[in-house]
Structures are given as C-alpha cells and as structure tokens.
Amino acid sequence: MGVVAVLAGEVRAEGVGKTIDETTLLLPTDVSADPGECIVLRGPNGSGKTTLLRIIGGLLAPSTGTATIGGREADERDRAVRAAVAALLGAPTTYRDLTLIDHLVLIDSTWGGDPNSSDERGLALLDRLGIAHLDDRFPHELSSGQEQLFRLALTFSRPASVVLLDEPEQRLDTAKRQVVANLIRERTASGGTVVMACHDPQLTSDLATRVVDVVPAR
Amino acid sequence: MSKRKKPGRTQPAPADQPGHTAYDHPTPAATAQVPTTQVPAQVPTATEVDYDDHDLLGQADWVIGGDAARKARQQGLYAGYVLFLGALVYGLPIVQAVFRTSDAGSLGEQLRSPVAIALLVASVAALLGAVVFAGRFRGPVVPPMPWIDLVLPAPLDRALALRRWWRYAAVGGLFVGALSGLTVGAGLAFAHLAGVVTIIVTTLIGTALGVLASRLWLWSQVRSWPGPDRSLILLWRVPDALRELHAESLRTHSANTSTMAGSALTGNLRTARLALTRPVRHGRSARLRPGSPFVVLVRRDVLGLRRTPGAFLSGLGLTVLGGAVVTWAFTQPAAPSIAATIGLLPLYLGFGAWAEGLRLQADNVGTPSLLGTTEVTEAVTHVTVPTSLTVIVLGSWVGVAAALGSLPADALLSLWLVLVLVLAGNVLAAFRGSPTFVLRPQMVAIWYAVPALTVVVLGSVVAVLTKAGNYTWLSVVSWVVYAVLAWSVSKVRRLTYLHRS
After folding, report:
1. Per-residue pLDDT reduced to its tens digit, A48-62
2. CB contact (8 A) between residue A106 and residue B288
3. Residue A4, domain member (yes or no)
4. Chain B residues with CB inside 8 Å of A108's CB?
5. What CATH number is attached to the domain comprising A123?
6. Residue A93 and residue B364: Cβ atoms within 8 Å?
7. Distance CA B106, CA B453 (A)
8. Nearest-CA distance B256 → chain A (Å)
9. Per UniProt, which keywords does this protein have (chain B) (predicted)?
10. Which of B367, B494, B495 to mutate: most A Cβ within 10 Å?
11. Is residue A185 part of a domain?
C-alpha cells in the first residue's frame, strides 16, 4: 500500500449537513469523538444518522461544515483516511465464490497480517461472534442474523483507529447483542474510537460515552 | 387434456345456480370435504365433465388481450421479414468478406483441414451448450404472469395452454438456423470456395441445427425444475415436455426475464449477472491461503475459478476458439483479415469469463473499504489470472503455428497488441459503471458495446495493417492501444471515487 500516514482516532464533525437539490438529508450537526470513546447517534428513522456516518467516513461530501479524521479531511480518496476507518454502513458486497473464513483471511492478508496465524485470527473472530461452525459456508447460505454477524466480522477483522457502525444490533438476538457490545468495548479499551447509530436503549446505555441526538430535518 | 375428462368429482355443478357460467365446475375442494369415514355406498359416483380446451383458451385470450393480442402476435411475421432483409443486405456481404482472399486455393485447403473442422464442430457444440445454459434461466416457453397465474391453474391440457410460446421459439429457431445456413452457404459460393449445391446443404444443416437448438432450449427449461421425466427423449416428445413444465418454474423463468430485461435496460449489470449465475457450492473444503496482498488476491481469483468450473470452462472454450482464429488470422497469409475481427469477440468474452474478481471489485465501489490495497493494485491483481491463462492459450496456438512453419515476427507483435486490447477492454467493461444519460434502448446498447467494439475495431485495424505490412501506421495504432489501456486505468480510479461527488 506504500507509505501511509497513521491517523489517530480523533473524529470531528462540525456543523456538517447534507442537502441534495431541495431535500435536506441532515441538518447541521456536531460530533466529536476521541480515542477510547464510543459515541452513539440517536434519532428517529430518516433523521440522517446514516448520512452523518457516511460523511464522517469520507464516503459522502457534506454540503455544509467540515468532517475530519485525525486532523485530515474525511475523504475516502485519501489512503490514510481509508486505512483509519472501518465501517459497516449497509451491506458490504461480498465475494460469492469465497467462504466466510476465506473472506477474513483475504482481508487480513491485504492489511499485512501474519500469514502464519491468519486462519487462527479469522476463526477466533468468527468464534467470538458464534458463527465459527459456519466458516466454510458461502455468504448466500447464511440467515439474515448470521449475515449481520458476518458483516460485523468483516468490519472488525481489519485494523482501524475509527470504527463506524450503522445499527450493529439489527437482526440480532439479545445474547448476540451482548457479544457485539463486548467487541465494541474491547475496541475502545484498546484506544479505538467508535461512532455508531443505535436504536437499542440497553446497548446505548451500556456503551455510550456520549449520545448525540440527530434532529430530523422535518 | 383431452376433450373428455374424468376428474373424479363428487357431484355435478349446479347449473341453475346464480352467477355460474357455462365453464363453472365444482372445485376440487368439494372432493376433499368428503368425510373419509363415510361408508362406500354413500360416496357419490364420479361424473364426467366436458372441457373444450380450445374454446377455453380462446376465451382466456379474449379476456386478457382482446383483439390487440391477436394483432400483436402477427408482429412476429414482420420481425421475420425484417430479419430476412437484414440477412440479405448485411449477412451476405459480411460472409463474402470473411472468405474473400487473395489465395482461394490455400484458404479452401485450410478450411477443409482437420483443425478447421474440429473448430467448427467445437463452435457448434459451444453454441448448443450456450442454449442449454440459457434454458436454465430463461427457457423458450415464458408466458406473461397473468397467463401463468390465471389461466394455467384451469384444468386445461398444459401442452395446449403453452403451445403458442413454444411455437414462437420453434419457428424462430428454424428460421434463424435456415437463414444462417443460407447466408454461410451463399457466402462460400459467391467467394468461389464451394459450389451452388453447398447453399442447399448448409441451409438444411442450419435448419436442423435451429430445430435442435430450440428443442434443447426447451429440454433445458424442463430440467430447470425437479421432476421424474427429464430424459433426452423429451427432445422429440414436445407435448410431453410442455406438460412437464411446472407453474412455479414458469413463474421463475418469467421473473428472470423481467429481471434481466430491467437490469439490461437500466445498465444494472450486477443484478443481471446474479440472476444468471448459480449460487456457488463447489470446492467448499478448499481454503484461501494467506500471503502478501498481491499473492492472496491472485489466489482468490484462482480459488474462485476452482469453485465456478462453469466459468472456467466457458472461458477456456471461448479463448481457445478465439485464440485459434486470431492466431490463424495473424500467422497465415491465406487467412482473410476479417478473420481477426471474428476471433476477437470470443477471445474478449473468454477473458471476461475468467475475470469475475475484476467485476466484483467494480461492484464494491462506493462501499467502505475492507481490503488494504489501492484500487489500481487490486485491479492489476484481478487481471493477473485471466491474462496468464490467455497468454497460455495464445502461446499454445503460436507454438502450433511455429510448428507448421508459419510465424512471422510482426504477427507476434500484433498478438501482443491484441492481448493488451483484450485486457483493457475487459477493465473498461468491468468499470463502465452505470449509464449517466437518458435511458433509451439504443443508447444503452451502445453503452454496453463500447468496450467490445473498441477491442474488435482496433484489433481489426491491427490485423489489416499487419497483413499489409504497413508498420508506420501499425506503430501509430499501437500507441492508440496503449492509450486505451491508460483510459481503462483512469476508469478504475474515476469509478472508485465517483460516488463521493
């Protein structure tokens, strides 16, 4: 990947808003998160939480305000930003001809993981999420809940100083939500920054360092 | 269903009941409601019910389409007329151009050689294989949804109820086969490579192949749904094949048609591709071995081909065929220049069949980054496997040409340019994105064709210049080929970051 600056997990979104034509997707909103923090975005459907996460991840340019990661403009075209941010925003496109463990090995290898222990890391993560027994399945052979767990595995399998999650609890039962909560806790405990949209009050109270209420445009 | 039916009903329809029509009959539910504990003597005897299948179908036709449906069906004749004119105006000149050569004697000998005959047989087999493949997703018998939902549940003979759509396909197959045979035979005769009798022979062979293709298409559609009778005997028992078609299967094929047509018209190639491909289930026990980013992505593509043998074999077949024709065009003086034009398309498609990783990379644009590689590095790794396989195939054909004692040095240079073109064309195709213009069928067709047309047109120019020995212009065209490669790389970058704006 060449020489890439390592960005700290400092997330700053100041007055970021998004308007397309006459439609306002997100009113100007401030979000600030430091390493070790978990910020929960809360708000009704359609208030712009996903849009805000996409702006913070550099996938979408804001109409107003600025968003930075580790002091650099949040722009996915910047290799350093790409290296810093792992995000689960919607369904990632998976390889239809790779099994679950193959996906994790592929991601691990492209991020320079030790080839000798790549399989073990992948299996351990699948085991944490309770889907290790499905390691040789293809993505299209999973139930919707298992698919969500696999998507979380994909997101957590790559190194990142900032993790963005859009409703990670969806389609998961209570026990699995706790597993996800533990993964997020570990990530923040190791100095990572997590910003997530969440509709689960229990998960929010367990994890949130701060809560940002996203106000709907109308 | 014959006109006399014995459905085993428990009682006749109450003819005088208000609201009933001449076609009303008791529902099968009435049979199911007969208590099983009744003594046999109390069970009413079965009655016979008259069905006039033709009359029922006529009524259904009228209710669903009215007179407009009848007129619409007559449009098929007009389409055949247009096809015939098209073959006359364009088909014959093209085929003549294919066989036009300065050395008809040598060309005739080469066309009669075992290799040429083997390639011809392989091409026909590949075409028939493609028909069987297509029949799994979209068979010849695809009535509209209202017909499937409202007419097929009636106790009509299914062979009769579906016969119309089969006839469209059967007549179409026969017509296209005969026309193709006629065009090829006439082209050979006009180019003085064969006598006039050849026209009759090729027309008959084309007609037979057209009939076989349409029947294989139907057989493949029957086999797309589980059932007891799936043998090849259905090829000549068409009514039985039609009766084997399950309503759910017809619904699936109809839905596939809508999905593919909608995806094609909107330029959503991923949806069309997923509708066409079977879920992967092979090679589950094989594991992706970790390694450096480049190596692991190459291994990914190799593993992908191991798990999708259909893609590997179709790529192999197309590349072997295209590679043979292209190599022949560049190395044999008697070969007409247009042979390269014909060979480039299967070569391009064969490369594409091996380049699923490239298309998956393009599918991923706009989603958060999961892999730790840059977009261009990833694209380069994804063309490594198809390029290597294409080099092996082309290299083998070059070896055959060298063994036969005909390998001009300029042919090697031109084949290198063809390889670069095919590679660039496939990158362009994978990263063509979505159409940004107003969606009109003609515009969408051109948008689809741009990468293939670029390969075929530029490759043909390379062939003409190589055969003419015009090295000044060949060097100019070689720069254009490298410009196409640079264009494809820029498309990778542009599409990857387009979503942000």
Report:
1. 999 999 999 998 999
2. yes
3. no
4. 290
5. 3.40.50.300
6. yes
7. 30
8. 18
9. Membrane, Transmembrane, Transmembrane helix
10. B367
11. yes
